[in-house]
Write a structure and sequence with these properties.
The protein has 19 helices and nine strands. The protein is globular and about 60 Å long.
């Protein structure tokens, strides 16, 4: 990947438009009119959607990299995919310090999480991207000098980035979209290019946020200017745009249109990585490159390899199928269970410690696996169960060793959904997707799930309507915007 380089004009501009990290949702970018050339806006969209912990927080480089904006760890702990990173859970369970980890591991709803959430890099950085990347491009593209075709492309990219960042934010800090209550459920501020410096941004309802997201996606596609394949997987291409559209429409239970969008995305990229090619089952080194994996539609991630992540024994036992190539053959886990226990304090847990090659997770972007599973769910929901199972089996065939793989069949939507939920759970490990999906399914009586955690002889349960499903706005936002009342 090429290093992100900014001309001196942009560097000068950024020095004036970067807001203090405590006021991301209150500030109109100043100096935006300095970016008056299409080439400048093109460079501004070269944002680094990966974690870069090596740069100083006061440097320009820090403000052009995602940092921890796409860190899903607490969401994964909530759904019992993993345990807190490099943390001894035995100490958490004693409750000596009733912090956020304690609330998430034990599903304790009495912890005052908003007082513990002083800052939140996801909230702060995603609004930073909206305000200081997407909105600047949208505001300046029409008047910027240069290639008008390119200007339209950049504006379309910015609309998709703005839509997707708001989609991530509303799913973290508000209730899942429910057609029955979306018009009144508290959401998040939707920040557009004309937001005012003098007024704190108003918190929209979940329904209004989604309406704005749809408007932005439609505006991007109407420009008819996005490339099918972008210059790299941290720029917006048409496959990602349709993937975002499919994600959003699925969340709104618009299954027919979500299916159309998923098909449009898959027509551009339908690659499924085949785990059977990796040794010891195959001959290739087990690896997944950062950014350039063939199934990435857009890469946004807080790290590469999930080194030292503790996978929940509940997930390992209940969701990996027999013969799964990664879990049963590659086994990218710490070889000594006693040593793993010393680090994690979780009996039977696997600690990811594969160092032979990079295996980069895409924690908050979109891959073809997601568009395939969106398509499968839409088919199941519209009673095309056999076609839904064909897609689920196509993924399973690439995940289970050939000598053990057996296709599954279903005759009802409920059966197909059960298989989809099981397949997606391991497919989306180390990402936000399981959290988003289970939270979404919990709005429907037919698919509500109670998460049950078994740890060292103790059992903890997370009910479908628990307030823990909604993360608190951080004080870095609420202290400066009285409209940011909590949504739980």
């Amino acid at each position: 990947m090429k290093k992100i380089l900014f001309y001196s004009t942009i560097c000068f501009c950024l020095l004036f438009i970067l807001p203090g990290c405590t006021k991301f949702t209150d500030i109109t970018p100043k100096g935006a009119n300095i970016l008056n050339r299409v080439s400048d806006l093109d460079l501004l969209l070269n944002f680094d959607y990966m974690y870069n912990g090596s740069v100083a927080t006061t440097s320009l480089a820090f403000n052009t990299t995602a940092g921890d904006a796409f860190n899903p760890n607490d969401a994964e702990v909530l759904v019992n995919d993993i345990y807190p990173y490099v943390t001894n859970v035995t100490n958490i369970l004693t409750g000596a310090t009733k912090d956020l980890n304690y609330a998430l591991v034990t599903y304790n709803e009495t912890i005052d999480r908003k007082t513990l959430a002083v800052t939140d890099s996801r909230f702060e950085k995603m609004y930073f991207i909206i305000n200081n990347v997407a909105n600047i491009v949208i505001k300046n593209a029409d008047d910027a000098s240069g290639d008008r075709v390119k200007a339209n492309q950049l504006k379309a990219e910015a609309y998709i980035i703005r839509a997707y960042m708001h989609y991530l934010l509303v799913n973290i800090y508000a209730k899942a979209y429910d057609p029955a209550t979306a018009a009144t459920d508290g959401g998040i501020p939707y920040i557009k290019e004309d937001n005012l410096l003098t007024e704190p941004n108003v918190k929209s309802t979940v329904g209004a946020v989604y309406a704005n997201i749809i408007d932005d996606i439609n505006a991007a596609l109407a420009l008819n200017s996005l490339p099918a394949v972008p210059v790299n997987n941290m720029r917006v291409g048409l496959g990602f745009a349709y993937g975002v559209q499919a994600d959003v429409l699925l969340s709104m239970r618009n299954y027919n249109d979500a299916l159309t969008a998923a098909n449009a995305s898959l027509a551009i990229n339908s690659t499924i990585i085949d785990n059977n090619t990796f040794a010891p089952v195959g001959t290739l080194l087990f690896s997944r490159p950062i950014l350039t994996a063939a199934d990435n539609l857009f890469y946004a991630s807080n790290k590469g390899t999930p080194i030292l992540q503790t996978i929940s024994p509940d997930l390992t036992s209940n969701f990996y199928e027999p013969g799964d190539v990664i879990n049963s053959y590659i086994k990218p886990n710490y070889p000594s269970i006693p040593t793993a226990f010393t680090i994690t304090g979780v009996t039977g847990a696997n600690l990811w410690y594969y160092t032979a090659g990079t295996y980069a997770t895409n924690t908050a972007g979109i891959t073809t696996s997601e568009t395939y599973l969106i398509k499968a769910e839409c088919l199941a929901r519209t009673q095309n169960v056999s076609a839904a199972m064909d897609i689920i089996n196509a993924i399973r065939r690439k995940r289970i060793v050939a000598s053990i793989y057996v296709p599954l069949s279903a005759t009802t939507e409920a059966q197909a959904m059960a298989y989809l939920q099981k397949t997606s759970r391991t497919e989306y490990l180390f990402t936000f997707k399981n959290y988003f999906n289970i939270k979404r399914w919990n709005t429907e009586d037919a698919y509500k799930q109670t998460i049950t955690r078994h740890v060292n002889g103790q059992t903890f349960s997370l009910r479908p309507d628990s307030p823990l499903w909604i993360f608190p706005f951080p004080q870095s936002g609420t202290n400066y915007n009285p409209n940011l009342t909590q949504n739980y």
